[in-house]
Amino acid sequence: MALRIDDMDKKILGELQRDAAQSLDEIAKRVGSSKTPVWNRIRKLKEAGVIRQQTVLLDAEALGFDACFFVLIRTSEHEADWQAKFLKALRERPEVLEAHRLAGDIDYILKVQVQNARAYDSFYQALISEVKVHNVTALLSMEEIKSTSMLPL
């Protein structure tokens, strides 16, 4: 049975998305409840898989990762073995922040965060040495205009 999300759950989730390091007291105060019911709701949301994990967002540029590339991949391979090898290669590379399989002319899009163009080239060379791809187009992001992980509750 699926968990029913009500307005209070949405308020709590909104607060956690804004700042998961808040204390239960702070969250309860912001959502107009008390600590125990908020804790119980958070526990249920975790058990239901609505809250997958809590983490910290780092500033890539502050850590020297100045280059963000969006990598468009076309492949002529669509067999299960190729896909498994490709997905394994992506999962093993920490510079791949996101990977999506697409409908349309492009098969996959990757978001790759690296120190510079030379680091991207190393990533690219390693990837194409492991899996066969038909075409790769890399687009350098000149400026990040908006980036969020917050869902519009």
From TrEMBL:
<dbReference type="InterPro" id="IPR036390">
    <property type="entry name" value="WH_DNA-bd_sf"/>
</dbReference>
<dbReference type="InterPro" id="IPR019888">
    <property type="entry name" value="Tscrpt_reg_AsnC-like"/>
</dbReference>
<dbReference type="GO" id="GO:0005829">
    <property type="term" value="C:cytosol"/>
</dbReference>
<dbReference type="InterPro" id="IPR011008">
    <property type="entry name" value="Dimeric_a/b-barrel"/>
</dbReference>
<dbReference type="GO" id="GO:0006355">
    <property type="term" value="P:regulation of DNA-templated transcription"/>
</dbReference>
<feature type="domain" description="HTH asnC-type">
    <location>
        <begin position="5"/>
        <end position="66"/>
    </location>
</feature>
<dbReference type="InterPro" id="IPR000485">
    <property type="entry name" value="AsnC-type_HTH_dom"/>
</dbReference>
<dbReference type="InterPro" id="IPR019887">
    <property type="entry name" value="Tscrpt_reg_AsnC/Lrp_C"/>
</dbReference>
<keyword id="KW-0238">DNA-binding</keyword>
<dbReference type="InterPro" id="IPR036388">
    <property type="entry name" value="WH-like_DNA-bd_sf"/>
</dbReference>
<dbReference type="GO" id="GO:0043200">
    <property type="term" value="P:response to amino acid"/>
</dbReference>
<dbReference type="InterPro" id="IPR019885">
    <property type="entry name" value="Tscrpt_reg_HTH_AsnC-type_CS"/>
</dbReference>
<dbReference type="GO" id="GO:0043565">
    <property type="term" value="F:sequence-specific DNA binding"/>
</dbReference>
<keyword id="KW-0805">Transcription regulation</keyword>
<dbReference type="Pfam" id="PF13412">
    <property type="entry name" value="HTH_24"/>
</dbReference>
<dbReference type="InterPro" id="IPR011991">
    <property type="entry name" value="ArsR-like_HTH"/>
</dbReference>
<keyword id="KW-0804">Transcription</keyword>
<dbReference type="Pfam" id="PF01037">
    <property type="entry name" value="AsnC_trans_reg"/>
</dbReference>
<protein>
    <submittedName>
        <fullName>Leucine-responsive regulatory protein</fullName>
    </submittedName>
</protein>
